[in-house]
Amino acid sequence: MTEKSTVRTREMAVELKAQRELKQLTLREVARRADWSASKVSAWENGRRISPIDAAIYLAHCGTPAAERERLLELTRPPGDPYWVRPHFDDLVDPMKSLVIQENLATAVISNSPAALPGMLQTEDYVRTLYEMSGQYPADRLPRLVQARLDRQRLLQRRDPPQCVYLLHEHTLRSVLRDPALMHEQLQSLVLATNLPHCTIRVVPASAPPYHLVAGRFTILEFADHPPVAYEETFAAGLFIDDQVAVEAFYVLRTRLEQAALSERESREFLVRLAEEFELMAR
């Protein structure tokens, strides 16, 4: 492939293939119906940018409903710049779906979470309490949102999961969300996660420089055949960054965080001790 794929084109590739498989069509059948070469369709399903017209024809042959077509055709717009915003308050946009797609394509995920714990490691009660505190969503929507977050965590149980590094901050780990009992359960879950061979948890101690003043929550996603991507999440939106100069800046910060963090063994011991502290507080 001569042109580089982007977050947007890779997401479109996944969505196109999903629509085709939903209709139980083979790649060659779609190509034959539209009078395209199979290699062209294959390129689109592997991340090469597809034009709005070709995408509309492709989706028409797959019988994609109008509302879904509208959502997917937004992905075909020319990138313009390597910063792609996925708003949290747009009915046509699911920012978590975009992140899930990239996580499932990645070979490595490096996550820095100076505020709340990373979504991949949150317990059900932790997830639900965060959503309740945010006030972003009506109560009747919370069960679906919580389940979506838990479904996302299946990535860690996949047969060939990406190598995951999670940088957790002591002040976040010590922040009591709702009550000590919830935090005891959450810390126990983190201790168990340290046993996963593809999951590395490093604790940035309170004695480290205040890196949370430099950057908020970010994730670096690495791929086998594509350049790495950075993702930043705010209250209102998620931001994907394909700009390699900017991505390199995140790598510099990641290196500094790892230099300040406890070792894997020390981090596990810290989590065990903190879980015990919350257990005593919950009595």
Please write the string of helix (H) and strand (E) elements. Answer: HHHHHEHEHHEHHEEEEHH
Rg calculated over all Cα atoms: 21 Å
The tally of strands reads: 7
Shape: elongated
Strand order of the largest sheet: 1-7-6-5-2-3-4
Describe the structure.
48% of the residues lie in helices and 14% in strands. By secondary structure, the protein is an alpha/beta fold. The protein has twelve helices and seven strands. A hairpin with a 6-residue loop joins strand 5 and strand 6 (229-233). It starts with 6 loop residues before the first helix and ends with a helix.
Short note summarizing the structure:
By secondary structure, the chain is α/β, with parallel strands linked by helices. It has helices at 7-22, 27-34, 38-44, 52-61, 66-73, 95-105, 124-134, 142-152, 170-173, 180-193, 244-260, 264-282, and strands at 83-87, 108-113, 163-169, 199-204, 218-222, 229-233, 237-241. The radius of gyration is 21 Å and the shape is elongated.
